[in-house]
Design brief:
Blueprint: H1 2-18, E1 33-38, E2 47-50, E3 56-62, H2 63-71, E4 78-79, E5 89-95, H3 109-123, E6 127-142, E7 150-151, E8 162-165, E9 169-175, H4 177-188, E10 192-194, E11 202-207, H5 239-247, E12 249-265
Parallel strand pairs: 4-12, 6-10
Antiparallel strand pairs: 1-5, 2-3, 3-5, 6-12, 7-11, 8-9, 9-11
C-alpha cells in the first residue's frame, strides 16, 4: 500500500541524510558526466542511490528531494522555492572518474554531497543562502504524571536501538526519547525538540489514527497526493492523544529558531 511505501521512504530518507551512503575512498568534487531528463511516469515510486566510485542514479525524484539530500535539510527547511521544485520529477544518471576504491572506511556525508550540490548549481542554476527563521515547532515534554516508558534491560555497552515508525503505529526497542522526537519530526514535517530531560533507553509501542496532514508525501519531497490514505481505524486516538495516554508525553506547540535554506534563484535544466 502507498502509505506503507511512504513510511519506508521516510526511513530510507533519514538514513540517506544521516549516513555515508556507501561511498568509499576519496570523494569526488564534481561529476564528469551527468544526464538529466524529465520523468514521465505517473506513480509515486522514486529512487535516489549513490553509486560505488562516486556516481549517482536517481529516478522519479523532485528537485526538492535532491536539495534535501545535497544540503542535508528537511523539507520544512527549504524556503522560497517555486512550486515546480516539489512537483516536477527527474531522472538523473551521473558518473565521475578518479575515485580511489577499496580504501577502508566510509567517506563523510559532507564529501559525498558536494558533487550533487555542484550539479544543482550548474544545471539548475541553483543559488541558495542559509538563514535562521522563527517558525512553529513542537516541544516534546512529559505530562504531569510523568513518562510511561519501560527501561530497556541489558548492558548499556551492548545497545542496539531499533525503531519502526509507520502509518499509525510505532515500535521502538532500546530507543531514546530524542530518537522518538526525530521520528516525529519526519512524520509531522515540523521540528520536534526533546525537552523531557530523559536520557535513558526504553522499549515502547504507540498506536494512533493518522490525521490527513500527517505522513505527507511533501515531507520527503514527493508531489502532493490528491487522495491521502484513509486511516485503518478511524475510532482510534490522534497522535497527540496517543502520546499522552500511552507514553506520558506531550507535543506542546511553540515557536523556535530554525535553520533555513533560502532559494534565491533556480531554473529548469535543459534536457541532454
Amino acid at each position: 500500500m502507498l502509505e506503507m511505501a511512504l513510511a519506508m521512504a521516510r526511513i530510507c530518507w533519514a538514513l540517506c541524510l544521516l549516513t555515508s551512503c556507501g561511498l568509499f575512498g576519496q570523494a569526488p568534487t564534481a561529476y564528469t558526466v551527468a544526464a538529466i531528463k524529465p520523468n514521465k511516469s505517473s506513480d509515486d515510486r522514486f529512487m535516489l542511490r549513490p553509486q560505488p566510485g562516486g556516481g549517482l542514479t536517481a529516478t522519479g525524484v523532485t528537485l526538492k528531494m535532491l536539495i534535501m539530500f545535497a544540503y542535508g535539510v528537511a523539507g520544512y527547511q527549504i524556503s522560497g522555492a517555486p512550486g515546480w521544485v516539489g512537483t516536477e520529477r527527474w531522472d538523473i544518471e551521473a558518473k565521475t572518474e578518479g575515485v580511489t576504491e577499496g580504501v577502508q572506511g566510509p567517506v563523510p556525508l559532507a564529501q559525498s554531497q558536494a558533487p550533487l550540490r555542484r550539479l544543482l548549481e550548474d544545471r539548475f542554476q541553483l543559488k541558495t543562502r542559509r538563514e535562521s527563521k522563527k517558525m512553529p515547532i513542537y516541544a516534546l515534554v512529559a505530562t504531569k504524571g510523568g513518562p510511561k516508558l519501560n527501561s530497556h534491560p541489558g548492558d548499556a555497552a551492548e545497545r542496539k536501538p531499533v525503531a519502526s515508525f509507520g502509518f499509525g503505529s510505532a515500535s521502538c526497542t532500546d530507543s531514546s526519547v530524542a530518537s522518538l522526537a526525530g521520528q516525529l519530526t519526519l512524520y509531522l514535517d515540523r521540528p520536534v525538540l526533546d525537552q523531557t530531560g530523559n536520557k535513558g533507553s526504553y522499549d515502547f509501542t504507540l498506536k494512533w489514527t493518522p490525521a490527513p496532514n500527517e505522513s505527507s508525501a511533501q515531507a520527503i519531497g514527493l508531489p502532493p497526493r490528491a487522495d491521502p490514505p484513509a486511516p485503518t481505524d478511524s475510532t482510534g486516538p490522534s497522535l497527540f492523544t496517543a502520546l499522552q495516554e500511552q507514553l506520558g508525553l506531550k507535543l506542546k506547540p511553540a515557536k523556535g529558531s530554525v535553520d533555513i535554506l533560502a532559494i534565491d534563484h533556480v531554473e529548469k535544466p535543459s534536457e541532454n
